Amino acid sequence: MYPPHLLGGYEVICQGALRHARARGHEARVLTTGFRRRDVPPGAPEDPDVHRELDWYWREHEWRRLGPRATLALERANAAVFDRHLAEFAPDVIAWWSMGGMSLGLIERARRRGLPAVFFLLDYWLSYGRERDRWHRAGRRLGPLSPLLGRLTGLPARVRWGDAGRWVFCSETMRRNTLALGLGIPDGPVLTPGVEEALARGEREDQPPDWRWRLLYLGRVVPGKGVHTAVEALARLPARARLEVVGEGDAAYRRRLERRARELGVAERVTFLPARPREQLADVYRRADAVLFPVVWPEPWGLVPLEAMAVGRPVIATGRGGSGDYLRGGENSLLFPAEDPAALAAAVSALADDPELRARLRRGGYETAARHREGAFNQAALAELESAAGDQPRSR
Fold first, then answer.
1. Are residues 158 and 210 in the same domain?
2. Looking at the structure, do residues 13 and 39 belong to the same domain, yes or no?
3. Residues 262, 268, 270, 276: what is their CA dihedral angle, to the nearest 10 degrees?
4. Which of 98, 146, 288, 373 is the most exposed place for a label (fewest CB within 10 A)?
């Protein structure tokens, strides 16, 4: 995916890095899928040289069940599109971003051409993508016979990950997880993503707002994000407490949340809203007294807490995964055990009862957000790409 058609922070970070490279005089082409968000109007502003031509194994928040013939057709179509863009654009280096649900064989096609590449690994697509790519999965099952499948079809059925390029990780959690997969991937640097400059440069409020019991969850509405914990915690808070859930996600999970809210008698206190454009995010955060980040899974990084901190909103989070690299309980956030609504409710109540605690977390949050800026990540990402291209100079 690529903005404005996106679901999360991965795509935003990719776009920021690409725009930074262009601002430094580099040419950049984006090749992505035909995914479209329904709330993005036709004719919405688009970055230049973005090509939404690839097909993938995911549609409408569900994994597609394709048979062998349809899988082969998808892979052949993607390979033809990829080869055409390589011929037209003649890149000096390829930046691989999110490849979950994509044709992983494209990576091997680039490797066999000797194209320098940098992988920016900001989620666990390397784990789940190898299962969801039905062609790649078939090659793994064939084992030693997979090269024969590749010769018969002209489509690589396996990827030599260790030789595919350089690897960059968004957090220590992501780095450890990737190296533990046993794919021969070389160690690489951890480049931590940061807050967009538009948010980071926003004016700080001189005085914190009065507590109004307004809570916010912003992000993908999927089970791993733990939104159910926030709904259940709401039932343990005063009747004037409200929860706003902003984001797209799994329709079945959304129905489960609505049903649970009715069971707990808090349905009228939970508002579900679609994802908002990036330029509206500051206002969305400022409507809240606190931002909840109740993730259950080991979050690869976690941009939402940093964005909330940048606009002066206290964060209550589990600290699982990459967000644990920067969340400090009592300093810039309050931490609670995942899937513990009583602990989450207690943390919210502690904030409500203690203006000094809120002020301390705001100060710590501002300082944390200032240390994690988009510009620093973009500079480091471009340096990796330039270095990779310089390792193997090629004429255009």
1. no
2. yes
3. 130
4. 146
**Element holding 332 (H helix, E strand):** none
Query: Strand, helix or coil at 249?
Result: strand
Ramachandran angles phi, psi of 76, nearest 5°: -65, -40
172: which residues sit within 8 A by CB, 6+ positions away? 190, 322, 325
What's 214's DSSP letter? Answer: E
What confidence tens digit (pLDDT) does each residue in 344-393 have? 999 999 999 999 999 999 999 999 999 999 999 999 999 999 999 996 54
Residues 209 and 351 in one domain: yes
- Looking at 3-90, which runs of residues are DSSP E strands? 30-33, 50-54, 58-59, 62-63
Instruction: Give the integer Cα–Cα distance in Å for 388 and 59.
Output: 33
Q: Please check whether residues 326 and 189 belong to one and the same domain.
A: no
**Left (φ > 0), alpha (ψ -120 to 50) or beta: where does 90 sit?**
left
Residue 96 located in a structural domain: yes
Q: What is the CA radius of gyration of the chain?
A: 22
Same domain as 244, residue 182:
no
Q: How many CB atoms lie within 10 A of CB 276?
A: 14
Distance CA 161, CA 77 (A): 23
Residues 173 and 223 in one domain: no
Q: In what order do the strands lie in the sheet with 315-317?
A: 270-273, 242-246, 214-218, 290-293, 315-317, 334-335
Same domain (yes/no): 126, 188: yes
Domain that holds residue 132: 9-194+375-391
The CATH number given to whatever domain includes residue 236 is: 3.40.50.2000
Residue-wise pLDDT for 78-111, tens only, equals 999 999 999 999 999 999 999 999 999 999 999 9
> 3-state DSSP call for residue 111?
helix
Q: How confident is the model at residue 366, as a pLDDT?
A: 95
Tell me: do 157 and 251 sit in the same domain: no
CB–CB of 75/105 below 8 Å?
yes
Give the count of beta carbons closer than 10 Å to the beta carbon of residue 163. Answer: 12
